[in-house]
Amino acid sequence: MNDLGTPVLDNHLHLDPEHGRGIEAVKDFARSGGTHLFVVNKPSWLLGVEAEKGDDFRMTFDTTVEVGARANEILPGKAWPVLGVHPGLISKLVDDRGYPPADARDLMQAGLEVANEYVAAGSAIALKSGRPHYDVADEVWNASNAVLRRALELGAETGCAVQLHTEGTDDLTDVAEWAEDAGLAPERVVKHYAGGKLSGVTPSVMSEKERLTVAVERGEPFLMETDFVDDPDRPGAVMGPKTVPRRVSWMQERGYDDGIRTAHVSTPERVYGVDTLETLSR
Ligand SMILES: [Zn+2]
C-alpha cells in the first residue's frame, strides 16, 4: 500500500465485476494510495438491460451496491454507490426503440425514482442524471431537461447530491437555477467529466494535469475523477483506476496541498456530507 498521508477520492468511476476488472481495479486504486470511491452504475444498456419500466433498472443498481460493499472490504476508506439513469439512454429509446420522447422521459424518471429509493434506504449516497453531450432534436433536449430536473427534485426530497453528465461547458448556471427552484443547494450538484473551472455547480475535474492546475489555481471547491469505465472493449479509452492517486502524488510534489485538501476533504464534505478523514483507518 502506498500511503499518501491524505484521503484520496475518485469521485466518479464504474466497476463491472461481470465483464470488466471489477474488484481488481479497486485493488489497483488502493495499492496506489487511493482510499475512497464513488462508484457509479454503468449505463443499463451496457449491462444488457432493455428497461421498459422503472423496476428494470434494479439489476444495474444492485450490481453497483454489491460491488461497492466488496470495495469497502478492501479500501482503507470507503466506497459509496451513486445510482441513476444515463442521459444517453434517451437516444437508445427514441432512435433505436421507437419511443416518443415523452415516453422516454417517463421511463427515465421512473428509473430515477427507483434509484432514489436506494438513496433513501441508505444503500446509495447520491443520484446520477444529466442530458446528452451531443446535439439532439429540441423535443429530445426538452425531455432530457425534464428528466434532469426530476433528479434535482428527488435530490431535494431525499437530501442527497446529484451528479450530472452534460454537454461540455464551463457554465451550468441554468442548472444551478433549477436546483434552487427545486430546493437543492447548487453546490450539491456535480458536473462529472468537468474542466478546471465551472460556473453554477461543483466541478468533478477529469484528472489531467492541465485541468487540475486550473482547478487548483482557481481555489474554488472541486472534486477529482477518472470516469474509469471498466469496459474490456475499451481498455485504452479512459483513465485507469490508479490515475487519481498518481495525480495526488504529483500535486504533492508541486506543493498543491490546499488543492488536495479541497478535492479530497472539504468538497466531499460540502457536496455529499461525508467525512473522508473520519472514515479512513490505517
Ligand atoms: Zn461515467
UniProtKB/TrEMBL annotation:
GO terms for molecular function: hydrolase activity, acting on ester bonds. Signal peptide: none annotated. It comes from Haladaptatus pallidirubidus. Keywords: Hydrolase. Pfam families: TatD_DNase. Coiled coil: none annotated. PANTHER family: METAL-DEPENDENT HYDROLASE, METAL-DEPENDENT HYDROLASE-RELATED. This is TatD family hydrolase. Transmembrane segments: none annotated.
